[in-house]
Specification:
This protein has 290 residues and is of the alpha+beta class.
Length: 290
């Protein structure tokens, strides 16, 4: 298998999913640019997106919108434009990074948390419950497996209960309420798209540096889209064949394999307003390691 044939399913997946260009830009900055100082020239960005078969006009339009919406800051040096993530973009990706790259181990104490709306501002209570980790299961009724640290901020106009059940019923309940079928299908499409590239590496196929960067960008982007919708249930509540496990293992194998070539391309081609990008932060090499 050649490098180009290994990348074909990935680019096909991108076209099929209709990923928005602005979202891929945020992924690029968070994954590859922030560890190298945070600023990238528009010319470098256009070259990367040309490899994704996304035209320059589309990229320029997306960059302008991101800047006007407060996601990016633009720096002008003569006729050249350079961009970096604004506070909004940095904070958003930093929060996502914990779920994308960090460990997913989660213990469960065997308790389901139930919440019933009880008058008052129902919209505000609903928003607070969802922010605390609850999922709606019926009109006015919410369920959570593990509460987030901000759970205490939930309105007092909510009746909260704890419930337990046997192990099999707990798994059935969690799957029915917390694991939408489209999430499972998304993981399976992800595996089908990126597994050929893993197989290419295993068989010794050499992937050119720019293609390594493209594959790394799309790997993180597509995984990010799934993992941010994933409730991250404890292993005790997941089906044995839950494809999220295999997707995580695939990322753990592919990401470090793609790093050398992709970072080499950035070393040799990527520019900020001062010249070549600085060396990456050492934390880059700890991603997907646990």
């Amino acid at each position: 298998m050649s490098a180009s044939s290994a990348l074909a399913p990935i680019l096909g997946h991108l076209r099929a999913e209709r990923s928005r260009t602005w979202s891929i830009i945020i992924t690029l900055y968070g994954d590859a640019v922030v560890p190298r100082g945070g600023t990238l020239g528009l010319g470098t960005l256009l070259e990367i997106f040309a490899a994704l078969e996304i035209g320059g006009n589309v990229v320029r339009t997306a960059m302008s919108r991101l800047a006007s919406d407060g996601w990016l800051e633009r720096i002008r040096v003569g006729r050249n434009a350079f961009y970096r993530l604004a506070d909004k973009g940095r904070e958003t990706f930093a929060a996502a990074a914990l779920r994308i790259y960090g460990p997913h181990r989660q213990e469960w104490d065997g308790v389901f948390h139930l919440a019933l709306l009880d008058g008052g501002d129902r919209d505000a209570a609903r928003s607070a419950l969802e922010a605390a980790g609850y999922t709606p299961v019926a009109p006015g009724l919410f369920l959570a497996v593990a509460l987030r640290p901000n759970a205490d901020a939930v309105s007092a106009e909510v009746i909260r209960l704890n419930a337990t059940t046997d192990a099999e019923s707990a798994r059935r309940l969690a799957r029915q309420v917390c694991l939408p079928e489209r999430l499972e299908q998304g993981y399976r499409r992800f595996l089908a798209s990126f597994a050929p590239l893993r197989d290419a590496f295993t068989s010794g196929v050499a992937v050119p540096d720019r293609e390594a960067l493209v594959a790394r960008l799309l790997l993180v982007h597509e995984y990010r889209r799934l993992v941010l919708r994933d409730p991250m249930l404890p292993a005790a509540l997941l089906p044995e064949d839950w494809p999220g496990h295999a997707a995580r293992m695939l990322c753990s194998a592919l990401y470090p394999a793609l790093l050398p070539g992709s970072e080499r391309w950035l070393d040799e081609n990527a520019l900020n307003q001062y010249g070549p990008l600085p060396a990456p932060d050492a934390s880059l090499y700890s991603r997907f390691r646990s």
